[in-house]
Design brief:
With about 375 residues, this protein is α+β, with helices and mostly antiparallel strands. Helix content is about 25%, strand content about 30%. It folds into two domains: about 190 residues, RlpA-like domain (Barwin-like endoglucanases, Beta Barrel); about 170 residues, Barwin-like endoglucanases (Ribosomal Protein L25, Chain P). Helix 1 crosses helix 3, helix 1 crosses helix 4 and helix 8 packs across helix 9.
């Protein structure tokens, strides 16, 4: 994808990062370590994340050799400072934008009923990737997945409207059933969810592909059509509006042709929702980024002085790890904070829309050009 806002990495000193000394580097180190087995195992794969930044794999091997992930904050800080050089991200805009996402908890069932009529679907067997899943956010302006027909042709997959009208009916792809299309829609936007079954047990589902159509923001559509002002839009206000009039809500949701498929997580996999690296996300430390600018797995210092609802005081200043992507996450300082699971996390995510700046930590022996590029 051609960048609309070219950016440059400018090396700086750790002493010039406001708040650096006061962060919990141990928490960031634990999140960083979660990425390492995946980065190391995929290093030899063609087009893999690790192939873009081989030096990061070497740092991961060093980190894993240190032992368990429970490093003290001072030990973790020393590790980051020894193996990474901080680089401020500069581009034509003065600041970027932070939003938030979370894992919703929704009521559902494995069987269809009057209470639970709306299916979520497994990945169809005829769905084919045109880009790696780790790059789908950066390529969200174009088709990322298509349908491969029995005779080998490739064609655009069914849209959201077509799927909800029955395009997948009869293919035994129903994974779970939720109460209404709005619950399904918001779980798709978040990319994961926990489903509380009628017997009280909970299961976790995660992203497993999409129909490939470009993502359209329903919030932006409602602003453009005069239903909301920019200040009025939040996850909560959108949910209320969409559910208040199901027919009106359906029309709005169908503006977004993109449709997400899911798979159920089990065992150790189910320790948390998965990001683009296919490892569990860490509350408050996992960050979705635009991979046309930054590689997944990199530590990123995020500063947003006006974001105060997610911290004790003084705004948001925290070392995070690039572990996810998103169709709406486009730009050199565009980030999406993972706030965790459940209603409280959803409230924090829903009101997060704040200016921010990034400092990206690059491995000291990397050969990456200081101009950020795909």
């Amino acid at each position: 994808m051609a960048q609309t806002d070219p950016a440059t990495y400018v090396p700086i000193a750790y002493d010039n990062i406001a708040g650096w000394a006061g962060d919990d580097h141990g928490a960031a180190f634990s999140a960083f370590l979660k990425s390492c087995p995946r980065l190391i195992s995929s290093a030899a794969e063609e087009g893999a994340v690790a192939a873009r930044l081989p030096a990061l794999v070497d740092v991961c091997r060093t980190a894993m050799a240190l032992g368990p992930p429970k490093a003290t904050s001072s030990q973790a800080r020393a590790f980051f400072e020894a193996h990474f050089t901080p680089h401020r991200v500069t581009h034509k805009a003065a600041q970027g934008l932070l939003t938030g996402y979370y894992e919703p908890l929704l009521d559902g069932s494995r069987t269809k009923s009057a209470t639970y009529p709306t299916p979520i679907y497994r990945r169809p067997p005829d769905l084919v990737n045109l880009v790696a899943e780790t790059e789908r956010g950066a390529k969200a302006h174009a088709l990322t997945h298509v349908r491969q027909t029995p005779d080998g042709r490739r064609e655009a997959y069914a849209t959201r409207a077509e799927i909800e009208a029955g395009a997948l009916t009869g293919q035994n792809l129903e994974l779970m059933y939720l109460k209404n299309p709005v619950d399904v829609f918001f779980m798709q936007v978040q990319g994961s969810g926990r489903i509380r079954l009628p017997n009280g047990s909970k299961v976790r589902v995660t992203y497993d592909g999409k129909n490939g159509h470009p993502y359209t923001s329903v919030g932006r559509y409602l602003i453009d059509t005069g239903q909301f002002t920019t200040e009025q839009v939040s996850l909560q206000s959108l949910e209320t509006w969409l559910k208040a009039d199901p027919e009106r809500g359906q029309k709005a949701m169908w503006q977004n042709k993109s449709y997400v498929f899911f798979r159920e997580l089990a065992g150790a996999e189910a320790d948390g929702p998965h990001g683009a690296l296919q490892i569990p996300l860490t509350t408050g430390r996992s960050l979705a980024i635009d991979t046309s600018y930054h590689a997944l797995g990199l530590p990123v210092w995020v500063a947003s002085p006006k974001l105060v609802h997610a911290t004790q005081s003084g705004g948001f200043h925290r070392l995070m790890v690039a572990q996810d992507v998103g169709s709406a996450i486009r730009g050199p300082e565009r980030g999406d904070i993972y706030f965790g699971s459940g209603e409280a996390a959803g409230k924090l995510a829903g009101i997060t829309k704040h200016p921010a700046n990034f400092v990206v930590l690059l491995p000291k022996d990397d050969t990456l050009t200081r101009t950020v590029r795909p």
